[in-house]
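=== Given protein ===
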Amino acid sequence: MNDPLQPPAGPSTQDRSSTGVPGLDDILGGGLTTHRLYLVEGTPGTGKTTLALQFLLEGARQGEKGLYVTLSETPTELRSVAATHGWSLDKIELFELVNDAGLDPDSEQSILHPSEIELGETTKAVIRQIDTLAPSRIVFDSLSEMRLLAQDPLRYRRQILALKHFFSTRRCTVLMLDDKTSEPGDQQLHSIAHGVISLDQKAEEFGAERRKLRVVKMRGIKFIGGFHDFVLATGGIRVFPRLVAAGQHREFSAVARSTGVPGLDRILGGGLVPGTNTLLMGPSGVGKTTTAMRCLLAALERGERAVYFLFDEGMATFLTRGIALGMDLRPYIENGLLKVHQIDPAERSPGEFASLIHEAVGQDRVNIVAIDSLNAYLQAMPGERFLLLQMHELLTYLNQQGVTTLLVLGQHGLVGEIRSDVDLSYLSDSILAFRFFEAKGKILTAISTIKSRTSNHERTIREFRLTANGLEIGEPLQNFEGILTGLPTYHGATGMLGSDG
């Protein structure tokens, strides 16, 4: 099966260097082309140094020599940074390009000149170091200090070109770091580098900052474009490639499977069909989560694998609710058929969430996925338009993998006018609508299938009730009008669940 995170087939990956950053090689289709110069740019704090260290450490694991040339940090500082991630830099050569003498304001010596012959003593030391060590991987940190010491834009550009030529003759793969302190719109470095990777971070009004990576250009490589979320934590950077669903398909049987409740199966036209998604929408407390739980339990009883993503409530509350309604999910968590992830939308990026789903489907081979609820997921997104685009890609991928998807969407209001934060009806294959309604001085609940693309579903409205034995579905409420508005009128003698009639 093709990996949905891989770009289209490109050049052979045998001459590639792994970046050592989880997810980044997937974006690049195998890694960086060897013996080229690359620019890694980003404002201070975005993770450039960490990415560079991971690049050199990966080379060390593969038996390649690495050299870190630093102008901005001392070797002691670099070792301290590495120690916070649990890394040792013993196999990497650290070279401080500018020492105390080189920073003397009376010294007018520039770091680089157009030709190698005219290079200053400081740069000659670097050349001797490279010639002696013969490294396969080099990190040059950072260009902003070079820009300051060059003092002139033309000289600076000539210095970069000379440095690029020097590295090319030594068959090195080079990362040059830049903190984007140049003039806005300056694309000189972009034109010189073989590839450009840009790191960015944005502080939200609440929650953790959001970090994004983008491959601006990469010559000769088909990469996955756009922004990709990443996290910078203990252990280094991890990138979550943007999910691309196009062309990813797995063979599966599209035969409807029971929800475990005969009445619910009838409403849906036979049950839930693999490769489709069902939207459960209604006000808070009406029974959406319990219905999703019942559908998962039926799949687990058949030996299928499932994953449940909880946004709104805690794990303990979720499991206690199930036990009270005769649906104990704990044995299935213990035997590994069910995984429940409690998601904090303030701490998890949408890309990280999509990566969790991809991992569940691709590695754990789950058959059914539940997302509860989309309201909290919406709050994690920068805008409704991006939520719809991301959900479209995510649902397309799940459908093509033959996964049964349950989406819970809470609506505002209890009776009367009901509103939603976002309209996902056009993305849904089936829609189950839940409503409160008033009858005989009681608040009752009703359920109905509004839409189904795969079956000839019922168009009736039935009473719906939660009991200690699970879900109960009553007869069609034929003698009521206005149930979906929450303010019905009664004409007849339809028996209600739990009534003496």
In short: Residues 262-433 form a domain with the Rossmann fold fold (CATH 3.40.50.300).
